[in-house]
Fold this sequence. Notes:
Elements: E1 12-16, E2 19-23, E3 47-51, E4 55-59
Antiparallel strand pairs: 1-4, 2-3
Amino acid sequence: xxxxxxxxxxxxxxxxxxxxxxxxxxxxxxxxxxxxxxxxxxxxxxxxxxxxxxxxxxxxxxxxxxxxxxxxxxxxxx
Length: 78
């Protein structure tokens, strides 16, 4: 699987606590937009990102963003 699965044509707007997170780049996760290891049989890997202070982020779910894991509006072109 080298083509990621679009799970939504909108971002996931989520309030996150300070921590390190893993964004699903393949789209096969059951815990969208976070990685659950579903990529194991693919050549894809999760993208780690760190939140330093509590904040609301818009995470990509179309998997076409040029700024992973963050939404850049690419879903509007799908």
